[in-house]
Amino acid sequence: MQIGWCTLNCRFNQEEGVGDTPDSYAYDGNRVRKWNVTTTNYGKSWAAGDIVSCLIDLDEGIISFCLNGVSLGTAFDNITRGSGMAYFPAISLSFKESVAFNFGSRPLRYPMEDYRPLQDAPTTDLVKAHKLLGYLKNVLHLGLDPAEGKLVERESSTWQLRGEPTVLITIAHIFNHFAPLMCKVYLVEDVLMKFLLDILEKDGPVESFPLIQQLLDLMWLLMEDYEVQECLKQLMMSLLRAYRFSPIIPDLSLQMHYLRLTIAILKHEKSRKFLLNNVLFDVLRSVVFFYIKSPLRVEEAGLQELIPTTWWPNRFSKEGKEMKEVKEESSDERLRRRAYERGCQRLKKRIEVVEDLQVQILKLLLNNKDHNGGEASRYIFLNKFRKFLQENASSRGNLTVLCPPEYMVCFLHRLITALRYYWDEYKASNATAAYSEEAYVPPQLFYNGKVDYFDLQRLGGLLSHLKKTLKDDLASKANILIDPSELQAITMDDLDEDEESATSTAQRPVAALAIGGALARPSWLSSPTLSRANRFLSTAAVSLMNPRRPLGTMEKVKIRTLNVEQRTEEDIEGSHENEGLLLGRPPEEPDQPLTENSLLEILDGVIMMYNLSVHQQLGKMVGVSDDVNEYAMALKDTEEKLSRCPKWRKDIQEELMKSQKVFSEKLNHLSRRLAWINVTIYSKEKMQDIYWLLRVCTHTIEHGDRTGSLFAFMPEFYLSVAMNSYSALKNYFSPVNSMEELPGKVQVWRRGE
Questions:
Q1: pLDDT exceeds 80 at position 251
Q2: Dihedral sign from CA coordinates of 47, 53, 54, 55
Q3: Cα radius of gyration (the chain)
Q4: How do beta strands 480-482 and 151-153 pair?
Q5: Residue of higher predicted confidence among 481 and 396
Q6: Fewer Cβ atoms within 10 A, N terminus or C terminus of the chain?
Q7: How many angstroms separate the CA atoms of 468 and 176, rounded?
Q8: DSSP string spanning 133-161?
Q9: Residue 4 forms beta bridges with which residues?
């Protein structure tokens, strides 16, 4: 990526971009160079999320750049100027690179003295908005003393509009002029968001600042709906940008501040439902709110202060093989390790505060008690969440739609925490329900059409194939009739499709299963229960050759697959004689529900999330640990060479000492970065989340196995997640955390014996 300035005379192509022509000037933070036909070293390395300021002084003929508000110095001087010369911002991008520009339509994050943005700020509107906001502050801060009839100061956080018609009329006049301004991006970010953040400046839970809720009430009361909606949309977009591009500082206070305001806004029911319906998943990539970015520059993140002492394990020999017998650590090494672990604990406590705020956001979105004025938040979230999964499952190559894997990992862990909270809360008030430790996905979700799996492969092949071949089993075992409109007569095209399905299924090396074929799985998954899966599916194949069995005397339920947009709360939770998602319960399943049906579908979505990209990202981040091991071996080898080097060979000693310094500095950097990764991705709590998913998958597979031939409807990704989560627990989380410490491990592992 090269970013800078160019004139209209510049002509770019695939080989030549900004900085490659005489009248174009660019800075490349990836290669840390500046470009104007020729190239030289300049600036600092940039990373994703950094903000680059491009400055041009046409009076002095100087171009310079800033990185996150810090000047990198003059890059070019004496640039071409004169009559007919005009410079424009320009950028050259490589494949998969992206950037967001701000020419002044929003407040600059790092305004520079003596420089103006290309787009001037709306000065007149800013003055007007600040004055009106000042009037509103005065109304909130002043009250009438009923005893003396005088205006007195009062705490704005305790302000309430009760029996004060004069105050209401005054506020209505203020909003009459203030409302149109709040539809403008610049004013929302520079005026309204700052005002709301100031309210939350003091410490304390968000509940102790009811003023924000009251202001939102006033907005919905005194502004037109379209004005409030546009204002809320711009406000959430500003909050997301502010959170995403906030620099990582030791106490993470900036991230906490923006998350607290997000919580305060989402606590307002009407605002929350509007944002869920129209903004959080449709306009914004709201998953960003659940991401904690990893700092690539340790010194700027303050990790040197949090973790002053670095340490790394010496588990590998010079040949790169893991030593079976680790040498007993010396007293100095023990002190370093303990100091490093204390630093990691300090970091963990700060990150846990941010994670708790993120979970609070999800708890608000999963609220199913707010039925006032329409559908509860949870069911809006559920349909949007399913759509989110569909986009990521069907757009594996479309980068503009895909959620980045690093975001997905954080989202998964926060969602698991919120899900288990509501699951156990339901258990507390329903004795017959199950605890989240016993969670699984009932098998009827896979065949009753209430949950859309977006044409994902099933264990028995394509869904269309299974509906035709197992429709009698659905009728006899689950009292389900497939809607005739979804069943097509078997034509030559159908037969060709089935043959293609069988061929492609046979070619899948992992978790692949064809009707009448054997399921390839590792030994840990070959329990006595699961070993019957092949027999059940073979039975299904035999049933195709036998005459159709007559339907039973029980009443059959005709079903058809519902799209996400078509579903209602009743379709999910059910009603008096409608079991909702649990329609078509096989006789092997208990009568009493495990939990609320909506939580079952969220659990199903969490498992799909892990399969889409989370496991891949967990494996990717192990690379930092591998880098630590490589540099540790290189440092150890260098120190051994230095100890053997003759004292009279000063030249060799000097080179070895330089290498030793480079390796030590790199290890100090990587060990602190690894501490961040271990806390955010490979902590004990995160390991327990993955272990819980493994248990959910094994329980789900066992229950699906009991349904006989209907086991074929289970999506393939359940087996994939079971195997991959086990692999992650075994290979990715050690040596920081050990599988041996997992609760209930013995019972789960015995299923694999």
A1: no
A2: negative
A3: 31
A4: unpaired
A5: 481
A6: C
A7: 63
A8: HHHHHHHHHEEE-TTT--EEE--GGG---
A9: 26, 90
Query: What SS3 state is found at 66?
Result: strand
d(CA 574, CA 582) in angstroms, rounded, equals 8
**What would the two tokens of residue 320 be?**
């790169």
pLDDT of residue 395: 61
Give the count of beta carbons closer than 10 Å to the beta carbon of residue 747.
10
On the 0-12 / 13-18 / 19+ scale of CB atoms within 10 A, 549 is exposed
Tell me what pLDDT residue 566 has.
60
- Number of helices (H) and strands (E), helices first, in the chain? 23, 12
Q: Which of 126-140, 296-310, 398-412, 722-736 has the lowest mean pLDDT?
A: 296-310
Of residues 537, 686, 535, the one with CA closest to residue 617: 686
End-to-end Cα spacing for the chain? 53
The C-alpha angle 403, 404, 405, rounded to 5 degrees, equals: 110
Q: Can you tell me the distance from the alpha carbon of 338 to that of 351, in angstroms, rounded to the nearest whole number? A: 20
Residue 517 has a pLDDT of 34
Kindly state the tokens that stand for 625: 């640990």
CB 198 within 8 A of CB 191: no
* H helices present in 267-376, as ranges: 269-278, 303-306, 331-365
Sheet bearing 38-41, strands edge to edge:
38-41, 33-36, 24-28, 2-7, 87-92
563 vs 14, 276, 384, 385, 486, CA distance in Å? 43, 19, 12, 13, 13
Query: CA 359, CA 444: separation in Å to the nearest integer?
Result: 30
pLDDT digits (tens, 9 = 90+) for 657-673: 999 899 898 888 888 88
Residue 506 has a pLDDT of 44
Provide the token pair at 431.
């004795």
* pLDDT tens track for 71-109: 999 999 988 888 878 899 999 888 778 888 999 989 998
pLDDT at 232 over 90: yes
CATH fold group of domain 2-92: Jelly Rolls (2.60.120)
Q: Cβ(588)–Cβ(536) under 8 Å?
A: no
Phi, psi of 258 (to 5 degrees): -70, -35
Asked if residue 539 has pLDDT above 50, the reply is no
- Torsion of the alpha carbons at 713, 718, 723 and 727, rounded to the nearest 10: 170
Q: At what angle do helices 331-365 and 253-266 cross, to 10 degrees?
A: 20
Cβ count within 10 A of residue 615: 22
The per-residue b/e assignment along 340-376, b for 16 or more CB within 10 angstroms, e otherwise, is beebbeebbebbeebbebbbbbbbbbbbbebeeeebb
d(CA 58, CA 631): 47
